[in-house]
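re: the backbone from monday

yeah here it is again, tokenized this time
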């Protein structure tokens, strides 16, 4: 079965196990958790958008779906979750077996409702910009913001805050002269203080006739205005921005109050657009050096914290900064707003400290070297790309709720979410990731945003489920559309129970989804456990899985084999163990925070690219073809294209590199060589499309300094300790890591042990 096709064309779901054990004991024995990767706003072809209210069960949140039993004579439908009998509303009086509403069609596992709730305020975009930049960097940043503004709808509300040593809130509605309110950057400002300082506690201004109710909130018309009404004022304010004038010595970092600025931005949105979709977009060129959220002192002799410092507890500011940003995260979730961070600097800026408010609100995190870099400019522009219908490709202020049948309980979820602490009889006592609830908040999401939901089977072994019975899951996503309209996306799915001892469970294993579920859990555990302990946990899990589903004779590793549906799973986990998600060597805390944040929100296909990057080879020997992610795939007469998701790398073999440097491609008689160079570059540029953040494109020669990015991802089947190292001319990797072959041999030996 092609699980990817089902995900892309039916319901946006990937199950680690597509057939579930029918008892708690059997479920514990299959090792890999019962996880489902859900893409709530997945773009499904021909998905119906229904211009009416959903029909809900009277005793539970269930929405009418194809798995409900319907009595057309009595006009009653039975909820498949709580078995409550419900009457159809009056406007359904004409339905019958041959005239069904769209939500009862079997092919519509996913439907969306346009709700009649009042239209909320249009989405708000509050730009929070760093002034502690050189002239050229500040100019590039302002140009990028202006280009982004051109992509926003005219109705979108926009605002501007700038910061250096002080925080400036620009009043765009005051057209006579430029006007800004200044806050101290050395202290945290509460929401009440922000409202008082900005005069937001007074009676709200009268809204224009026909505008949504939220448009008459205090501050709208002054600090937040529709783009069509303030585009000139906003661009003028941007043009007037100058590098921060606070004095500092060459041996000192500038005073940069990122934390204070973020706090003021949160307070402004809390007062103006609570409960409405909004994004705080922080653009910074360095770390916070003053006030709340301090990452490093102003003296450049003080190095910014590393992973070693965090392991030893030697970063005195880290805990305080994390506590401050955790507080901001709670306020953002409560108000339904999200935080985006665009960090453009050669050094760290403190993303590890800022990770929580970005991660739990669904914000975007971008790492670039400068504000003039393509990675930053294209990523900022890609955020505001429109769908085929002309709307922004994002949802706001969403809630995600899960329903399940009585034999199943909800253990938790992972992703850009925050718990709503909504507990009912379907919630498991055993928590996995963010658990203890059946509903979560997503302050911002896109068609790419994916969550992993974990379940427990609670049915007892002595109460067997009748053969052929299905279990049901329903996922409800209530969100604000970019046009301000409230919508409800409903996904209902069914899977089969397996009979005890049957082989059906193994046949329904989706090794790709299972690898992503395990990767998310491992990444989540890294936040609270030592990396060594997480690796040991992964090893134990794969050994138990191999022992459970492998075919072998006891204590004879040579007889060990895995079923067809399991053969790639150990390989995925081998590369996961070596990945930047679990190995922090050669990465900064900021980079680690960024990588883990991205893994926790992408779908199965994208996550697998991160875990085990695809490798393509281009040569004169034939058309481009996939090759093993192995050092032996490096050939002097071939070009390799490696896609790590975060970087797309073109690796030229030594012979190809020499030909290119000799400019053979410029000679008419070497058209084939010119085509060989052009093909991987064209494919690489195609890979850059559709991702946010935009990947970095690198070109390197075999043996070049940046070839290390390729070697780090390859299986070290040939190393400096290999017997043929002294005589072989092929590429080797200088590492003490074991190869995939050794890893699989150890796995077989441990799995077959008595």
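seq for it, each position gets an aa:
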């Amino acid at each position: 079965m092609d699980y990817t096709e089902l995900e892309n064309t039916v319901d946006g779901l990937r199950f680690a196990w597509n057939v579930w054990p029918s008892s708690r004991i059997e479920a514990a024995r299959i090792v890999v958790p019962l996880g489902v990767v859900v893409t709530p706003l997945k773009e499904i072809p021909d998905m119906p958008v229904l211009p009416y209210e959903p029909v809900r069960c009277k005793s539970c949140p269930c929405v009418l779906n194809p798995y409900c039993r319907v009595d057309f004579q009595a006009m009653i439908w039975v909820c498949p979750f709580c078995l409550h009998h419900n009457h159809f509303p009056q406007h359904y009086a004409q339905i019958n077996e041959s005239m069904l509403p769209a939500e009862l069609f079997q092919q519509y596992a996913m439907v969306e409702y346009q709700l009649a709730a009042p239209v909320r305020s249009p989405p708000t975009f509050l730009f929070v910009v760093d002034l502690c930049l050189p002239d050229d960097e500040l100019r590039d940043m302002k140009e990028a913001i202006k280009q982004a503004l051109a992509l926003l709808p005219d109705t979108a509300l926009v605002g501007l805050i700038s910061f250096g040593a002080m925080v400036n809130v620009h009043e765009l509605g005051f057209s006579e002269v430029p006007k800004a309110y200044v806050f101290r950057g050395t202290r945290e400002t509460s929401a009440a203080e922000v409202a008082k300082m900005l005069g937001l506690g007074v009676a709200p201004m009268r809204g224009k006739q026909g505008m949504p109710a939220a448009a008459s909130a205090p501050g709208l018309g002054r600090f937040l205005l529709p783009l069509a009404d303030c585009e000139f004022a906003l661009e003028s304010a941007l043009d007037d921005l100058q590098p921060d004038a606070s004095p500092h010595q060459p041996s000192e970092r500038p005073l940069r109050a990122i934390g204070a600025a973020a706090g003021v931005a949160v307070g402004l949105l809390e007062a103006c657009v609570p409960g409405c979709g909004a994004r705080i977009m922080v653009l910074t060129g360095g770390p916070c050096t003053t006030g709340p959220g301090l990452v490093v002192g102003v003296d450049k002799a003080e190095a910014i914290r590393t992973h070693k410092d965090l392991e030893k507890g030697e970063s005195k500011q880290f805990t305080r900064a994390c506590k401050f940003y955790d507080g901001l995260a709670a306020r953002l979730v409560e108000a339904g707003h999200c935080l985006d961070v665009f960090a453009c600097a050669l050094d760290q800026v403190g993303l590890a400290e800022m990770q929580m408010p970005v991660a739990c609100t669904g914000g975007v995190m971008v790492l670039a070297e400068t504000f003039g870099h393509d990675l930053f400019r294209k990523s900022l522009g890609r955020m505001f790309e429109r769908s085929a219908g002309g709307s922004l490709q994002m949802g706001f202020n969403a809630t995600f709720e899960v329903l399940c049948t009585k034999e199943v309980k909800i253990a938790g979820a992972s992703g850009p979410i925050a718990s709503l602490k909504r507990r009912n009889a379907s919630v498991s006592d055993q928590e996995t990731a963010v658990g203890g609830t059946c509903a979560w908040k997503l302050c911002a999401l896109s068609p790419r945003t994916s969550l992993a939901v974990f379940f427990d089977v609670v049915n007892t072994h002595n109460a067997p489920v009748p053969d052929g019975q299905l279990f049901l899951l329903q996922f409800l996503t209530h969100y604000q559309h970019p046009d301000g309209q409230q919508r409800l996306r409903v996904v209902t799915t069914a899977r089969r129970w397996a009979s005890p001892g049957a082989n059906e469970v193994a046949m329904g294993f989706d090794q790709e989804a299972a690898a992503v579920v395990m990767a998310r859990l491992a990444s989540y555990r890294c936040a609270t456990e030592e990396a060594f302990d997480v690796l040991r946990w992964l090893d134990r899990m794969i050994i138990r899985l191999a022992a459970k589903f492998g075919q072998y004779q006891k204590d004879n590793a040579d007889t060990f084999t895995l079923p067809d549906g399991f053969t790639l799973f150990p390989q995925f986990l081998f590369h996961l163990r070596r990945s930047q998600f679990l190995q922090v060597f050669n990465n900064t805390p900021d980079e680690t925070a960024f990588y883990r944040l991205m893994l926790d929100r992408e779908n199965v296909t994208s996550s697998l690219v991160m875990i085990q990057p695809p490798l393509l080879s281009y040569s004169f020997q034939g058309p481009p073809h996939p090759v093993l992610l192995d050092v032996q795939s490096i050939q002097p007469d071939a070009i390799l294209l490696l896609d790590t998701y975060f970087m797309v790398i073109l690796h030229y073999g030594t012979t190809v590199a020499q030909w290119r440097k000799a400019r053979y491609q410029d000679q008419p008689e070497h058209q084939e060589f010119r085509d060989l160079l052009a093909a991987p570059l064209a494919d690489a540029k195609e890979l850059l499309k559709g991702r946010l953040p935009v990947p970095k494109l690198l070109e390197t020669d075999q043996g070049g300094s940046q070839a290390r990015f390729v070697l780090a991802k390859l299986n070290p089947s040939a190393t400096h300790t290999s017997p043929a190292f002294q005589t072989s001319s092929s590429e080797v990797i200088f590492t003490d890591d074991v190869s995939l072959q050794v890893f699989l041999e150890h796995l077989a030996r441990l799995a077959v042990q008595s």
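The two ends are 34 Å apart (CA to CA). The chain has four domains: 3-115+395-503, 125-383, 510-612+737-754, 613-714.
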